[in-house]
Amino acid sequence: MSDSVKLSERPPLDIILVEDDDGDAKAIRRALTRAKIANPVMRVVDGIEALGLLRGETGTPPDSYILLIDLNMPRMNGIELLEEIRIDPLLKEAVAFLLTTSSDERDRAAAYAHNVTGYIQKQNAGSDFVDLIGTLDHFWRIVELPDMRLDRIA
Q1: Tens digits of per-residue pLDDT, 61-110?
Q2: Gene3D superfamilies under this entry (predicted)?
Q3: Which one of 78, 93, 107, 126 is most buried, counting C-beta atoms within 10 A?
């Protein structure tokens, strides 16, 4: 039997990591492994790839997921991705956390204007993102997330 657990011991919840920096992506995956969180992680490198995944253009989108979105990415940044998600009737309820190095109040305001669940500065996420993963684990243990399949059926 594996010591790994799924976040909050609920039905499968995929983590969609939208991150162009290989080092940060690897550090987040390592933090998940160290925390023994076995949820599937799907990584895309920018907002355009994320939309393709979420809209089913590049395969079947996950039934239930949360998004960890980097702010500064090529082609489509995190705010632009959030804009697209919030106007899409099938995606608008997606739970999204924005990860960034930016401390610019305008970036924070733009993120919350697009109903981001949390604005997390990478430098405050703990050594190797351990605090970030711990926070997300606690969040998922007490919060009921929407089942994205219901929007696709309706």
Answers
A1: 888 889 999 999 999 999 999 999 999 999 999 999 999 888 899 999 99
A2: 3.40.50.2300
A3: 78
Q: Does any domain span residue 2?
A: no
Torsion region of 134: left, alpha or beta (phi above 0 gives left; psi -120 to 50 gives alpha): alpha
Q: Which long-range contacts (CB under 8 A, 24 or more apart) does 5-10 make?
A: 5/36, 5/37, 5/38, 6/37, 6/38, 6/39, 7/37, 7/39, 7/136, 7/137, 7/140, 7/141, 8/137, 8/140, 8/141, 10/140
- Alpha carbon of residue 24 to chain centroid: 13
Q: Is the dihedral of CA 85, 51, 78, 25 positive or negative?
A: positive
- Establish if 80 belongs to a structural domain: yes
Whichever domain contains 65, its CATH number is 3.40.50.2300
Q: Looking at the 3D structure of the chain, how many domains does it have? A: 1
Both tokens of 117, joined, read: 């669940």
Domain that holds residue 128: 7-145
DSSP state of 128: G
Binned at pLDDT 50, 70 and 90, residue 145 comes out as confident
- pTM given for the model: 0.84
Helix segments in 7-113, DSSP class H: 22-34, 47-54, 78-87, 105-113
